[in-house]
Chorismate-binding protein (Arenibacter antarcticus), 370 residues
Amino acid sequence: MTLNFLDRIAQQYGNQLPFVAYRKPNEEEVRLILQNDQELHHVVDYRESGFIFAPFNASDEAILLKNDASYSEILNTEKTSENSDSQPMKDDGAGKAFHLGLVQRGIHEIKAGNLDKVVLSREVEVSTSKDPIQLFQNILSLYPTAFCYIWYHPKVGIWLGATPEMLLEMENQRLKTMSLAGTQKYLGEDSPVWGNKELEEQQMVTQFITDSLKDKIKLLTISETMSYRAGNLWHLKTSISGMTTPEIGLSEIIHSLHPTPAVCGLPKLKAKDFILKNEKYLREFYTGFLGELNFKEEVNRPSKRRNQENRAYRTIKNKTSLFVNLRCMKIHKNKLTLYVGGGITRESDPEMEWKETCDKSRTMLNIIRS
C-alpha cells in the first residue's frame, strides 16, 4: 500500500527518525525530506548539502538533515484568512513585569551609548491536545505567504513555524536578501503609517546588511522600502541583491549576516552579549535560520547553436534558500513553547514593546486555536 504524504510524515515521526516538511512563501508544493537514521550531523563549512537548522548563537553548531529520501506534493489544505486573529495570552503579571524591566535595561544601554539597538524576546508556554502534524496543517492553511515548516530530530526535538523573513537566497553566484523590521498590527488598511522608531529601526538593519556585503558582493542593488504584510502584522521591507565573487564562500556571507540586527541588534557582538546575559532563557533555534543548503537542480535549456535548435543541454544550479526562524514554537509532549520579541531603540516605549510581543504571539496562537 502506498503511503500518502502526511502518512509518510507520521510514520517517520513514529519511528523517531529525522525529517522536515516545508512550503516556501507563495508556493503550493510542500516538500518532505527524510533522513534514514538517527545520527546528528552538523554543518562544518557550508559546502555540505542538506536541510540546515541553525541556532541563534552562531557559536553553537548548526544541524544538517541529510536528504536520504524526498517527496513533494500539493496538499489540499482548507484555506483560512491570514487575518484570522485569536486573543493574546493572558499573563499573570510576573512575565510582563520582567519583560518591561528587560526593555528598560535595553533602553538604558542604548542611551548610555553602549548599544544602538537590541532585540529582546520572551517565551510563552501553552498546552494543546493537537498533535504536531495537525498543527503543521493549520500553519499551511493560515499562512500561505510565509515559509512554513515542521522539523524533527529525536536528539533535538520538534519545531514548527511560519516565518516571513528570508535570510538569503543564492543561485550559483546570484544572491538575494532582505531587511525586515518595524511592526504594526494589520487593521484592514491598505498601508500603515510608520513612525520614526520603526523607520529608524528599518534603516539600521538595511545599513548593516549593505555594510556587511559591500566587500563581498558586486552589483549591489537596494530596493525602495515598502510595507509588507505577514499574516496579521505589517513590517517594513527592503530587498537587496547582487553577485558574489568567486573567492567569497557561502560560509563567509552567512557569518557576516547572522544574526542580523532584525533579531539581535547593533553593534552585533555587544547586542548578542546583552541578550545572552539578560533574557534569562535560551533562545535555542528561535531567531536562528533554516532551509535548503546547496541543493542541486538540473535545468534543461534549448541550445542556441545553429543546426541544434531542437537539442537541449543541461546545466546544474546550486541553490541555497535560508529563512530566519521567527514566529516559531517548540513542542515537548503536550506543552508548546512560543517565542516573541521586538527591536528596542532609543525611541522605544516598554509598554508598547510589550504590546508588540502580544500581537506577534497571535501568529502561533492562531495555529493552536484554529
About this structure: The chain is about 25% helix and 35% strand.
